[in-house]
Amino acid sequence: MADQLLESSWCEISLPKIAQNLTNALARLPQGTRFCAVVKANAYGHGIENVVPLLIEQGVSYIGISSNSEARAARDAGFAGSILRLRTATPQEVKHAVQDRVEELVGTVDGVRSLIETLGQGALPRLHISLNAGGMSRDGLELSTAGGREACKKILDLAGERVIGLCTHFPSNEPKELADSIARFQDDLSWIFANSCLRREDVLVHGGSTLTLASGQDPQTDMMRCGAILYGIAGSRPDFQSTLTLKSRVISVGVYPKGSTIGYDRTSCLRHDRVLASIALGYANGYCRQLSGRCAVLIRGRCLPVLGKISMNTIVADVTDLPGVVIGDEVVAFGRQGGQAISTQAIEQLTGRIIADLFTDWGQRNPRVICQR
Ligand SMILES: *Cc1c(COP(=O)(O)O)cnc(C)c1O
Known about the structure:
Blueprint: E1 9-14, H1 15-28, E2 34-38, H2 40-44, H3 48-57, E3 62-65, H4 68-76, E4 82-85, H5 91-97, E5 102-106, H6 109-119, E6 127-130, H7 146-159, E7 163-167, H8 175-194, E8 204-206, H9 210-215, E9 223-226, E10 244-256, E11 261-262, E12 268-269, E13 274-279, E14 296-299, E15 302-307, E16 315-318, E17 330-337, E18 340-342, H10 344-351, H11 355-365, E19 368-371
Parallel strand pairs: 1-19, 2-3, 2-9, 3-4, 4-5, 5-6, 6-7, 7-8
Antiparallel strand pairs: 1-10, 10-13, 10-17, 11-12, 13-16, 14-15, 14-17, 15-16, 17-18
Helix pairs in contact: 1-3, 5-6
The structure holds pyridoxal-5'-phosphate (PLP).
């Protein structure tokens, strides 16, 4: 399949691995807890249209998105369940997402007022109140202050009949911090049920993400919202497999004499005659410059050092120890080839970035190729 692909570099997306990660994630859920599959950032770079059919197949009925185009892509892919936006949105965004039945987060009185002004009371979407219990302080209502409790009552006065959910997001899943956040969230919920006409049985309480699920602590919610776990990003758990491989091809092979310098600023210099392969991959493809002088790629199942600075569209690997490399050979810059791997841990350490950051980057800067293995 990829043999026919005439692209500089590409991301292979493994559908069976995503499906297996989903199966494993569902099996880990606390008894009776629902699963919201997070597909923001175009499914962490994997393409919503690729992931949604797998979710439908395993009966996932809630998904989390960020942008209107993601909601549209999910509907286009046949998703008929509930779509929740995982951040607050501008009134204009909300207005244009009504056709795709996107449920929205609210956390401030002004936010709710502007929705009512723009859409009219009658056209408000289904709403979830975001609580700052976890302590992200990005959009949630802070109930520890008198002002926050007043705001909560006001929001419920203004839009109470549209409120179907109460949620929070945990900033840390370190055991003690998570336990504290869970307790705090439960306190906030109890206050709301004691001080409003919202009834516990009428709202969906949700909180907990991948690292919460991986932690084994039960956040005591009706639903957990998990993204990373689907793509094999769940810390170092062996039961979740990485789902994306970054590939390119050799475009030139040449012999360079001792003393040759390599790339911009001559940061690398050959101490012996070497055979160097040029590869059609660079920072324009998300193969970031932090990797300069420190990384390796896989060709024919061998791990080979990349020399010099990363250019916009090419890198240079030393293939002297691997005779027979030819133009057109497939190169793995992240993932497995033969028995070798450029691993998540290695690439995170070399780049100083987390793999979710890199997946969203690679997946959106390169064409995606579906892989059935
Ligand atoms: C991204 C996000 C999630 C999913 O987080 P993962 O760590 O990828 O599981 C859940 N909830 C909210 C509000 C988010 O923004």
